[in-house]
Design goal:
The complex is a heterodimer of chains A (about 450) and B (about 450). Chain A is an alpha/beta fold and about 450 residues long. Chain A has 14 helices and 13 strands. Classes of the chains: A alpha/beta (about 450), B alpha+beta (about 450).
Chain lengths: ~450, ~450
């Protein structure tokens, strides 16, 4: 295993980049010999000994009485849990700027965002050699920060990794995945966190993880994905495609996937519908924050707690989701979005029938500056997810990997494989990183 | 008058619907876990036994049983509901379009579905200083909801319907009489155009009371030429009146969505593995028709015990069913408490033989009764030592009649004179003999003395 940072170094890095919203109190394991390999868990994954606040003030002080299954499985392997990585509140965001506990900074440029919602996880991976970060993706929350921070971000098939102990955003979309600096770590840790878990029935229908070789020979690039890209991203992606053909002997074909343009709307309807029910339980009564006067009508008590402790984006998504579920709108929004999801799945199936992967850039731009994010309207921020949302909506395994650098900032490309075919993603990761020179931030000591 | 019911019955599973917490607990909040408290990161895992029970109920109610079902989230904010959504079934109930016959009338069953119970709120303290305590032991206990068509026509019929339904459910899913105390119903009742919903009435008695009160309230309004307002009311158990619910519940919007943590369940597979059970009242109907005996008597037999019905059928196949019924409701019933734990093939055979001997006039009626009593005591029916008991009874009666000859004299004009003997023997023997036996023996002794 590679060298671990000293506790002092870790604290220093955290002060600068706000990776963790809670760090392990006892970091002495870092000085063990041989050093113990380290991992981190996104703050929405429950881990005993830590609070689990999912980036939200409303869960202040909540200490879960159990480990999330992926956390437990990592610990069983002797991994040292360094801390809980910062994130957008409940996963609601693209830049990790919606956290109730400070904002993680991009290791390549602290004036820029890490991406979201697994921002802290990507920053930790980028900064710490040999680190494995457990991230969570609902609509692109692993791919996006992996792209902005220049690391590998693997989102397995929906149902591959148990969600027991994951604080829900959209249960039909949430997936626990990995962020690493190298493809070998993905191959090592994916089998550890995968597999059926009786505590999460949706993980019990999976075929066994098969990591035997599956050589990627033919990939599809949807035309629809090539619109509205930042010019640097477009050219980086184009040269990556060229390298795939020239250096890796992979056939690249353009295809049309017209339903992709509906995916974003369907995603936001489904994700917010589910989220608005998941967040109903947070009311200051049984766990988390308690800062309202209890001797008032329960409605007033709940409203007071929720008004004071949910962030703006959480409130927006609760309202959106509640609206989409209302009688009279349910058919128009929620039911229609379910139909669109089926459409997107069948379109991927069609294309993946004769291609090993679908390739697109991961994000339409490089990590934005915080000042620019402030100017974005909510809808513009949602639209930034238009490439990461479709595979998430379809529950397909996908991987973001660095494919170029603009202005010193990483650009990511995203590979989407058929359901349960994570091995095709490992193949492309191994072949691509064997020739592509990945860069890591030069952080002054 | 039109009455429709939404009935909630707890399913007697060992563990809760979505977690492994036991369904029984003494201390408040002792049978709880992250799942039934709705802790973040917890997840439901379905208790299949509850689904099986619901399928059995739906089949019994002659519903169309769905081939696959899924669950939904019904969202509302209330302190007893930990997740602030209830996992229930919305667009895929276990069964629809069934019926249940009560008093010869078929009552439509609209749907049967499974859902989780919320916790229980207890209000303590003086008025004005009330404190609400919540016990989450009940949170997550499986419920079956049965929704009827508005086919019931009186509070009496509604109560009868629920009573008969519970008798059958007791047998199908094994609820106990104490579980039935916790049966809750929402009742829709209309005398005129508008219907009123009385929510969350607990138990049979309260249901009838609530409906009676509501029927007469609506009646008075209509007679006075006033309108009945469509509304939700609650039943005040102490004052026995219905009151307009404080909170406005105008077409509450629960914003149903599918429950994504639970998949689709194949009911045809579950259904195929379930055995058809004959419920008590259906059995009474069959016995009444097949053996040509009085339905009320058949009903009395099955309501006492299905084992008694087994014995009756064994008798009815051996002797005249009418005789079988008389013996069942007579000596057998009188000794039932002792007989029940001894019932098996051997004791059934012995009892059948006794009755056959009586019918064949090989032994007397009273000897037959004595033998059944002996079987009940676990003694050999033909054993001589058993007969001592009978002699003891005979001597008690003889002694009394010797001391009170007027009883024998009066008996000719007034058979009730024999009651004095019976009362005396009952008192002296402290319940050793049942009244039937004493009456029989006394009658015979008086007849012997007067003939």
């Amino acid at each position: 295993m590679s060298c671990s940072p000293t506790p002092e170094r870790l604290i220093q890095l955290n002060e600068r980049f706000r990776i963790f919203c809670e760090m392990a109190e006892d970091l002495s394991g870092l000085q063990d010999y041989p050093p113990r390999p380290t991992f981190s868990a996104k703050d929405n994954l429950c881990a005993m000994g830590f609070q689990a606040r999912a980036g939200s003030r409303i869960l202040e002080g909540y200490r879960p009485p159990f480990d999330a299954t992926p956390v437990w499985r990592m610990r069983q392997e002797g991994m040292l849990l360094l801390g809980k990585t910062n994130m957008d509140e409940f996963g609601f965001g693209t830049f990790s700027t919606n956290s109730g506990y400070d904002v993680p900074r991009n290791p390549f440029d602290a004036g820029r965002a890490c991406g979201g919602s697994s921002g802290g996880a990507a920053a930790a991976t980028s900064l710490l050699e040999g680190h494995v970060a457990l991230g969570v993706s609902t609509g692109g929350s692993i791919s996006c920060p992996a792209s902005f921070c220049g690391v590998l971000g693997l989102t397995p098939t929906y149902g591959r990794v148990s969600r027991y102990g994951l604080i829900d955003y959209g249960n039909s979309l949430d997936k626990v995945g990995l962020m690493t600096r190298d493809s070998g770590s993905l191959r090592t840790w994916l089998p550890v966190i995968s597999g059926p878990d009786p505590k999460d029935p949706t993980s019990c229908v999976q075929p066994m993880l098969d990591l035997s070789p599956r050589k990627v020979e033919r990939v599809a690039v949807p035309l629809e994905a090539m619109q509205n890209l930042g010019s640097g991203v477009e050219s980086s992606f184009a040269s990556a495609l060229k390298s795939l053909q020239d250096d890796h002997d992979i056939l690249v074909e353009e295809v049309s996937m017209p339903s992709l343009k509906f995916a974003l709307s369907a995603y936001y309807v489904l994700a917010t519908s589910e989220a608005s029910t998941n967040l109903a339980r947070y009311c200051g009564m049984r766990f988390g924050v308690r800062n309202s006067n209890i001797s008032q009508h329960f409605n007033d008590f709940f409203s007071e707690t929720r008004s004071a402790n949910f962030g703006t984006e959480a409130k927006r998504r609760i309202l959106l989701g509640t609206y989409a579920r209302m009688v009279g709108f349910r058919d128009r929004y929620y039911m229609k979005a379910l139909a669109v999801r089926q459409l997107v799945i069948s379109e991927y199936k069609r294309v993946l029938n004769d291609h090993d992967l679908v390739l697109t850039p991961t994000m339409p731009f490089i990590a934005p500056r915080f000042a620019d994010i402030e100017k974005m309207r909510p809808l513009e921020a949602y639209q930034a997810d238009f490439l990461t949302v479709p595979p998430n909506l379809a529950g397909l395994p996908h991987l973001s990997l660095p494919c170029g650098y603009i202005e010193g900032m990483p650009v990511g490309m995203q590979a989407v494989a058929p359901h349960w075919e994570e091995r095709a993603l490992l193949d492309i990761a191994e072949r691509w990183t064997s020739k592509f020179q990945m860069r890591f931030p030069e952080v002054a000591r | 008058m039109k009455i429709g019911l939404e009935i909630h019955v707890q399913l007697p599973t060992r563990s809760k619907l979505f977690c492994s917490c036991p369904t029984t607990a003494d201390e408040p909040n002792s049978s709880v876990c992250p799942t039934c408290l709705g802790f973040p990161g917890s997840r439901p895992v379905l208790n299949r036994r509850a689904l099986e029970m619901a399928v059995q109920i739906a089949r019994f109610l002659e519903c169309r049983v769905a081939s696959e079902i899924w669950f939904s989230r019904k969202t509302y904010f209330y302190p007893d509901l930990p997740k602030h959504f209830q996992i229930t079934q919305y667009d895929s109930p276990v069964g629809v379009d069934g019926s249940f016959v009560v008093g010869g009338r078929s009552i439509g069953i609209w749907r049967v579905h499974v859902e989780e119970d919320p916790g229980r709120i207890k209000r303590v303290g003086r008025s004005g200083e009330e404190v609400s305590l919540i016990d989450y032991n009940r949170s997550g206990i499986p419920l079956v909801e049965i929704v009827t068509a508005p086919d019931l026509t009186s509070p009496d019929e509604a109560r009868n319907f629920l009573n008969e339904l519970l008798v059958e459910l007791r047998h199908i899913i094994g609820t106990t009489a104490s579980d039935e105390q916790s049966v809750r119903a929402d009742a829709n009742i209309s005398l005129g155009e508008e219907r009123v919903e009385v929510k969350n009435v607990q138990g049979l008695k309260n249901l009838e009371r609530a409906l009676k009160f509501e029927a007469s309230r609506q009646q008075k309004l209509l007679e006075a030429g006033m309108r009945v307002v469509r509304e939700t009311r609650r039943f005040d158990e102490e004052r026995k009146v219905t009151l307009s619910a404080r909170e406005k519940e105008l077409e509450e919007d629960y914003g149903y969505i599918g429950e994504p943590d639970l998949g689709v369940y194949d009911l045809s597979r579950i259904s195929a593995g379930l055995l058809e059970v004959e419920t008590p009242l259906r059995r009474a109907q069959r016995m009444s028709a097949h053996y040509v005996v009085d339905y009320d008597k058949a009903r009395q037999v099955v309501l006492t015990s299905m084992a008694m019905a087994d014995l009756f059928e064994a008798l009815a196949n051996a002797v005249d069913p009418e005789v079988a019924m008389n013996w069942t409701l007579g000596p057998i019933s009188a000794n039932w408490e002792l007989l029940l734990p001894r019932m098996n093939d051997q004791s059934t055979k012995e009892i059948v033989e006794v009755v056959q001997l009586v019918v064949g006039r090989q032994i007397t009626d009273s000897e037959g009764r004595r033998r059944i009593g002996a079987i009940a005591m676990g003694e050999c029916p033909t054993d001589i030592s058993c007969a001592v008991q009978d002699e003891a009874l005979g001597s008690l009666i003889n002694d009394y009649l010797n001391e009170h000859p007027q009883v024998v004299r009066d008996h000719a004009s007034n058979p009730k004179a024999a009651n004095a003997v019976i009362g005396h023997v009952m008192k002296v023997a402290k319940g050793k003999y049942n009244s039937q036996e004493i009456v029989e023996a006394t009658r015979k002794e008086i007849e012997r003395r007067t003939s």
